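Project outcomes to date are best conveyed with an example. Our students and postdoctoral researchers have been running inverse folding experiments weekly, and each run begins with a structure described purely in tokens. The record below, which covers 253 residues, was selected by the lab manager from last quarter's runs and is presented without edits.
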């Protein structure tokens, strides 16, 4: 944990959330993934997770309520979302009982897997009759991994992509998943003494660069091919995941 962030730490945190917000402004996702991945290369995993909480909650809550598909998505996805939120408590128990280097390595694997899936364009399809049990199953897996690593995307985003949502509904559904996951993660971290007032204030201050980055990213979106940017984004996430995995492996030696 970091007690009183020094000037260098504050500058790093500001830069990370400016970049993560820019990515989210361009492609509509990526703030938790980018910020957690980058912060975990400097701070320990639990500190990185705590710093991510407020910017992730604020930006994804906005995404969750915009789009006009809220009622339909809640009726359709509530078992998935409930399972994703409740099981975070199970995964978070590992934060105080498992070597953080192991959990950092797991984060690296999840980031790399997410990037490979994005680069390959490989997806799955979950037929409507299967969604009754697949939704809670995918939600539970996502929640456990979120509690252990702070990463919200695997396999939850893969499931949302697999059930045939339109683009606007998909973006809003991801906002819902990330919002309930962030809330549950924050409560779990607080319960384990890993999210205190100091980190809460620092995380709140990170709202400014996050929203500045989103505004910048929305401006960039109008000038840049989204397909090209996504390729660069996934390549960067892949490199980041490999870097975190290697560092974690060295830390276990």
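After processing, the design step wrote out the following sequence:
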């Amino acid at each position: 944990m970091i007690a009183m962030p020094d000037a260098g730490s504050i500058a790093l945190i500001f830069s990370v959330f400016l970049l993560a917000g820019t990515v989210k402004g361009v492609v509509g996702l990526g703030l938790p993934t980018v910020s957690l991945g980058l912060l975990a290369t400097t701070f320990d995993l639990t500190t990185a997770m705590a710093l991510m909480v407020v910017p992730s909650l604020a930006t994804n809550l906005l995404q969750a309520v915009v789009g006009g598909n809220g009622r339909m998505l809640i009726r359709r996805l509530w078992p998935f979302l409930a399972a994703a939120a409740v099981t975070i408590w199970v995964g978070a128990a590992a934060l105080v009982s498992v070597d953080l280097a192991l959990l950092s390595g797991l984060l690296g694997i999840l980031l790399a897997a997410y990037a490979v899936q994005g680069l390959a364009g490989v997806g799955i399809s979950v037929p409507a009759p299967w969604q009754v049990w697949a939704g809670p199953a995918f939600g539970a897996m996502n929640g456990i991994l979120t509690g252990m690593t702070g990463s919200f995307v695997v396999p939850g985003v893969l499931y949302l992509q697999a059930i045939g949502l339109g683009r606007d509904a998909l973006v809003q559904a991801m906002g819902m998943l990330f919002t309930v996951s962030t809330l549950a993660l924050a409560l779990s971290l607080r319960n384990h003494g890993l999210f205190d007032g100091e980190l809460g204030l620092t995380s709140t201050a990170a709202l400014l660069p996050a929203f500045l980055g989103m505004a910048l990213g929305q401006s960039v979106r109008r000038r840049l091919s989204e397909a090209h940017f996504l390729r660069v984004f996934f390549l960067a996430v892949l490199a980041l995941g490999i870097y975190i995995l290697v560092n974690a492996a060295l830390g276990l030696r």
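The radius of gyration is 17 Å. The chain has a mean pLDDT of 91. The training component of this project remains on track.
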